[in-house]
Amino acid sequence: MLILAVMLNCLAAGMLFLGAAQYTLGSVPADYHAEILEKEGVELSPHMIGILASLYRSLAATMAALGLMILVLSLGPVAQDAVWAQGIVAMAGSLFAAAATLGPLAIEGETGVRTPWRAGLAFGGVIFAGFFLALIG
User: CA-CA distance, 8 to 131, in Å (whole number)?
Assistant: First the structure.
């Protein structure tokens, strides 16, 4: 079970790296942000786009850093059955999953625009499954 837990954690890290790539290389504003802003009649100035781009890059760096931490801990101490490392991966991953799920879910409910809360929920599920399997492993 421990090897499966490590594999799930590596999958979670990969999900974070993909998200980081999306916010680094994707359009500014993101499609769903643009749709929400358009519904509100907001036109973005070049400076506002620059602010969003900076926030996107900061989010991308944070996602990449969390992914790297999960990957390093999973291939090292988690793979050696260190409960402390399993706990850190679970806590850090759960914090990100909660923010990545609840905020976008609320915005989708308010605006009707499809947001990426499902990806946050899927990430949380992978983190939870990895933690559970590591504990029983």
Answer: 9
